[in-house]
Amino acid sequence: MRDGRYIIGGADLRAADRGAPDSQPDRRHQQRYILVPDATVGHQHAELVIEGERLYLIDLGSPRGTHVVENGERRRLYEAEVTPDTSVELGRWRCTVADLLSMVDSLQGEASRTG
User: Fold this and answer.
1) E strands within the chain?
2) Which one-letter DSSP state was computed for residue 78?
3) N or C: which end of the chain has fewer CB within 10 A?
């Protein structure tokens, strides 16, 4: 099952986002890191929490923000329960929560092949 907490991050790997130079994420954390293809998304931009059928999206203090997009309008999100149909914007990258869930499923597929 995919229950758990997943860090969502992008290609913005500034030193401030990476932590100490000698810190290496262990394998368990790498399997829970959703890498999105956009440089406007910070290294630790947001967190997706999956608890059974409930989904939560939490902004981790990202400078460019996490937004919910409804009827063409953006609303800043700090922490909220979401659905797979929720349209979100992380930095300038727009997707649905269903897209993020597909990325989680891909991570789990990779973990089962290597684990």
Assistant:
1) 4-9, 33-35, 46-51, 54-59, 66-70, 73-76, 79-82, 87-90, 93-96
2) S
3) N
Residue 31 and residue 58 in contact, taking contact as beta carbons nearer than 8 Å: no
pLDDT digits (tens, 9 = 90+) for 75-114: 999 999 999 999 999 999 999 999 999 999 887 666 555 5
Distance from C-alpha of 56 to C-alpha of 36, rounded to nearest angstrom:
18
Q: What is the pLDDT of residues 44-57, one digit of tens each?
A: 899 999 999 999 99
* String of DSSP letters for 9-31: E-SB--HHHH-STT----HHHHT
* Measured distance CA(96)–CA(83) in Å, rounded: 9
* pTM to 2 decimal places: 0.79
Q: Which CATH number fits domain 4-114: 2.60.200.20, 3.40.50.620, 3.90.79.10, 3.40.640.10?
A: 2.60.200.20
Q: Taking a C-beta distance cutoff of 8 angstroms, is the pair 105, 113 a contact?
A: no
